[in-house]
Write a structure and sequence with these properties.
alpha+beta, 28 strands, globular
Length: about 700
Amino acid sequence: MKNHSLKNQSRRQFIQQTATAAGAFVVGMYLPLSSEAATSAGQQPALANAWIRITPSNQITLICARSEMGQDVYTSMPALLAEELNLPLSMIQVEIAGVAPVYINALLGGQITGGSTSVREAFDKLRTAGAATRSVLVEAAAQRWNVAASDCKAMNGKVTHSSGKSATYGELAADAAKLPLPEKPALKSPANFMVIGKESMRRLDTPIKVAGKAVYGIDVKIPGMAIASLAQCPVIGGTPTSYDASAALQVSGVIKVVQISDGVAVLAKDFYTARKGRDALQITWNEGANATLSNAVVRKSLEEGLSKKGAVIKTVGDINATVANGKTVSAQYFLPYLAHSTMEPVNCSADVSNGKCRIIGPIQFQQGGEAVAAAAAGVKPEDVTIETTFLGGGFGRKLELDFIRQAAEISKAAGMPVKMLWTKEDDITHDFYRPMSIHKVEGVLGANGQLETMKAKMVSQSVTARAFPGFVKDGFDPFMVEGSNNVTYEIPNMEITNVITDTGVRVGYWRSVSNALNAFAIESFVDEAAKAAGKDPVAFRLASLDKHPRAKAALELAVKKSGYSASSKRFGVAQMECYDTYSACVIELDPTASSTKVKKVTFVSDCGIAVHPDQARAQLTGGVIYGLSAALANEITIENGRIQQNNFNNYPSLRQNQVPIVEVHLIPSQEKPGGLGEVGVPLVAPALANAIAAATGKRIRELPIKA
């Protein structure tokens, strides 16, 4: 996985080529996982599968390289292609890709959907594919009619000539496939966009979802398939040492019971029966090293990390500079473990037979899934087929590979295809949790009342050290720095430090990763510094944003749209750059409520070119609600190695009647697209804490707020 700061590096070059397959015109691009690694190994890049397929019947299909989990790649990615092919979006069909080097995410270094990268990574790539395809279709028509290509026009699935001749893209496909693709086809300027950025765009997956035809992992059916319910150790990481299946096998409808590496599965024709059989199992567990783990133990370990040096990830000026008549401000912040809590619990279907392994399910990391399934099934990676369904929520949970391995192990042990379904309780108690973190932030105010120095230290576990250990070097995790090494404030002297502390808890990437952790600490601290300086928190921020005009404009618009008043005591603000998108959030509390109640959230983003504006606003709205649920009520606690929360009753999401007014505004921009799927989350908690401090004088430094 690659550092999100890759925006500062040149994007990998891609190779284009054409091929004819079954009468279809296929355009492919190759993006190597690591060009450096390939070169050092003496390997040449392999040719890849296709992005575009055009059949003689004029069926035009995008092979979508990213998983659809509600974030809109099923529409926004085809929109990029439709724009340069001069097609209405409705003419493009979509297939979710299998595993191939061509589908590697150049911003992350693997075939991964995450990091709010899908549109950012594809924006130039898919438009280039569309423009190159349009070019050779026009050239094929010109050669067929013996006319100048400049006199031909490609539009709405046809190439036409001023003489009245016309041919569909499909009719020209075979000839076009024989022509060389232009290396750098001219791309449209935003001023000429007909699809991208248009408010009239509608999601392509809505009709099949409304009709109940969309296939989620939980819907998968394979002939001869059994349903598997898996008993797992109540302590994550524990394994079964022995079990008695006699009572389970007496449950009518139970087919068989099999043991895998980390559990015991009961198979039946339906989930109710499989679950009933699972509940009848008698299992002896080896609870492993985490059997005595608790929140208190973890927190103490992190607090001890504050005294450690750690990895300095950013320095500006001289952090030890003397500030004449300076005023010191210092605070410590705490954030808890969090679960992903997707609406669709973890599930996966597998068929291991005849030396092959077929995996079908809601997957965010296809490349990793292929490798893990091959190992579990005992087959070669090339004998694994990965089929990605729609995801009923991902948020980073389905980047993990545990459920793929489990399904493959169960199918292999049972000798039959299976669909493994977790319960909601399984999902909450066996997650890869967002890390707990402790932050110490201190600074000195200068004579002008602005921060002259700021030192921030975050102590936390490293998800990357677990998931991709090769990317953590000398204590530097490229994902722990999100939200801290990209601070937009001009502070003359600054030092940002991370301390990785492994507590043994299984942690994973959670929606917005470390942006949410660092934003809470830094934006809360900036508010505290403003109060110490005797300044309005908005004016305090704006005074340090002159070198970041996009950030400044976002904050100014959020203030204007929210009705913010410096004299009011019910508003809280926060701002940041997150995944190349500049955002500001203003939260207004309900002054008539007896306890903390959010009346309105105003969220403004400059996300560059918004490919699908309606969905951009929807993603930001969803992120705000997800972040607000976490800030107000969510935490994962551990006692005796066991997760104490297990369902929506004790790990709640905001209900409809609890959701405030959420108003989202997009700043028009001609910049390259920024991320959106995670951007709405990080600013909510600090803006809320800042609003509470303004209203009550009480400073919230620990989440959840529970007020």
